[in-house]
Amino acid sequence: METQQQNGFWFGKRVLVTGGDGFVASHLINYLSTQGALPVMTVRHRRPMFTLELIKDKNSSEKAMMPDIEQCDLLDYEALRRVCDRHQIDTIFHLAASAIVSDAANSPVSTIENNVMGTLNILEIARINKIPRVLIASTDKSYGDHLDDSLEPLPYREGYALRGMDVYSASKVCADMLTQTYSYQFKVPAIVVRSSNIFGPGDLNFTRLIPRTIMCLLAGKAPLINQGNEKVLREYIYIDDVVRAYTFLMEKVSEIYGADNCHMPHHGSATYGWTAFNVGNYTAAETADPQSCDSIKNVSEIIELLRKKITDIPPVVKAKAANFIEIPDQYLDCSKIINLGFRPHTSFADGLQRSIDWYRENYSYLEKRATRYVHA
Question: 14-198+237-288+327-346: CATH homologous superfamily?
Answer without folding.
Answer: NAD(P)-binding Rossmann-like Domain (3.40.50.720)
